[in-house]
Design the sequence.
């Protein structure tokens, strides 16, 4: 397996920048604490050695610090791709480079098509804040109501990841890094925030923005998942895979409506 769901072609590695505050915050000790801590728990609970548990973590979760190597330019461009995917004129294929004798995908700061966790986490946090404002405007704000909305958001994210992961698994891509799928599923909160914010500006805007964001997220997932299928599936069944991609896109409509129904 190639790193981060495989790769088909390599390109020369460009010189890395001297500083990247967002990425460096998760380098070194942070990544070691994550893997070391989970390895210790695995050794205690499962009776496996830390090395074995950490190898499993690396296999299915990839490298956590990879997903936070972003900068302002990447965030701006990525938001454009998520919110206006039909305007993206470039390719949707992730770029790979040779590292240590094998091909590895370039980090988000160098590849607009790479998944990241910065935007999904910021989108989820913004969604919770906007949900709190919405509850206040309709006179239903309370710590319990906000906690319920927070839990609904987490459950929605989990269901989105479960949908994508199970779909890919059914097509024989069971070893896709979980954090890739978590990132793709979390991008939905970006469009959700836009729709909820539109409700603040003018109530009727919500009824236009919500289906629009559903459509854009559906297009984004179809374009993204297509590249995963082309890269990983050897026997490509166009009919079966197209129906699956269409199903992924259609599911975004009830998913968005459910998350956007704040206070119900």
Sequence:
């Amino acid at each position: 397996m190639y790193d981060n769901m495989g790769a088909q072609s390599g390109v020369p590695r460009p010189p890395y920048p001297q500083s990247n505050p967002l990425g460096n915050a998760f380098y070194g000790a942070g990544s070691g604490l994550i893997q070391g801590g989970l390895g210790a728990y695995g050794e205690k609970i499962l009776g496996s050695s830390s090395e074995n548990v950490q190898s499993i973590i690396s296999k299915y979760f990839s490298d956590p610090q990879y997903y936070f190597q972003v900068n302002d330019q990447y965030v701006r461009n990525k938001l454009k791709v998520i919110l206006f995917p039909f305007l993206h004129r470039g390719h949707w294929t992730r770029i790979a480079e040779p590292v240590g004798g094998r091909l590895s995908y370039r980090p988000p700061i160098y590849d607009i098509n790479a998944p990241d966790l910065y935007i999904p986490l910021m989108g989820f946090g913004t969604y919770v804040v906007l949900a709190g404002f919405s509850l206040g405007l309709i006179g239903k704000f309370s710590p319990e109501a906000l906690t319920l909305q927070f839990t609904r958001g987490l459950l929605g994210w989990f269901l989105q990841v479960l949908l994508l992961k199970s779909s890919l698994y059914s097509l024989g891509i069971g070893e896709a890094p979980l954090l890739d799928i978590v990132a793709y599923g979390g991008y939905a909160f970006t469009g959700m925030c836009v729709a909820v914010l539109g409700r603040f500006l003018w109530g009727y805007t919500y009824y236009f923005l919500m289906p629009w964001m559903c459509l854009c997220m559906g297009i984004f997932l179809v374009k993204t998942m297509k590249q995963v299928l082309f890269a990983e599936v050897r026997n490509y069944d166009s009919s079966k895979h197209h129906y699956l991609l269409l199903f992924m896109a259609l599911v975004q409509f009830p998913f968005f409506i459910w998350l956007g129904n704040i206070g119900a």
User: Anything to note?
Assistant: Strands lie at 96-99, 102-105. Residues 11 and 38 are 34 Å apart (CA to CA). The first helix runs from residue 21 to 24. Residues 1-50 have pLDDT under 50 and may be disordered.
